[in-house]
Amino acid sequence: MKRSIGARSLAYPTPAWLVGTYDMFGKANAMTAAWGGICCSDPPCISVSLRKATYSYANIMEKEAFTISIPSEDYVKETDYFGIESGKNVDKFEKMGLTAVKSDLVYAPYVEEFPIVLECKLIHSFELGLHTQFIGEIVDIKAEESVLDEKGNPDIKKIRPIIYSPERNYYGLGKLLGKAFSIGIEK
């Protein structure tokens, strides 16, 4: 029997991403975000929800662009820090020893050291309450050669992305359970 635990912002898993933006002075900034995911396949789009109070919110509204840098487990401390400190107060890239790279397709920076980067142009924003959902059309994905498989596709086992849980914990990936769109056919 299931017990009601109430309506909360709780889903499993959620990502641990860095959302990259430039401020009005051209200063690179990034923040950790967990409320997001793919929201359309054609055109390829991603959503991320941010509070109005964040520095990144204003940057996205002004520049109409952002990046999503997907960290590997090797960068869990840096990923956490980028969600603690505000870019208004400190250069987070410098403090954490990471490299901000200007996208050549959208006006936003990404994290050079992270294995996967999505470059996005803002196509919609929706006020939802405390958060605003930003929908970005993915104009390009950049991936380190080391995380690609023999067919040139990203390999999740090589990327080793960080997963965030609503209990405020970070996790790595678990074991492979089965092949999508085929395991369900097997009896």
Automatic annotation (TrEMBL):
Family stated for the protein in its record: Belongs to the flavoredoxin family.
InterPro entries per record: Flavin_Rdtase-like_dom, Flavoredoxin, Split_barrel_FMN-bd
Molecular function, one GO term: FMN binding
Superkingdom of origin organism: Archaea
UniProt-recorded name of the protein: NADH-FMN oxidoreductase RutF, flavin reductase (DIM6/NTAB) family
Coiled coil: none
SUPFAM superfamilies the record matches: FMN-binding split barrel
Segments forming domain Flavin reductase like: 9-164
Cofactors demanded by this protein: FMN
Keyword Flavoprotein annotated: yes
Species in which this protein is naturally found: Methanolobus profundi
Keyword terms of this UniProt record: Flavoprotein
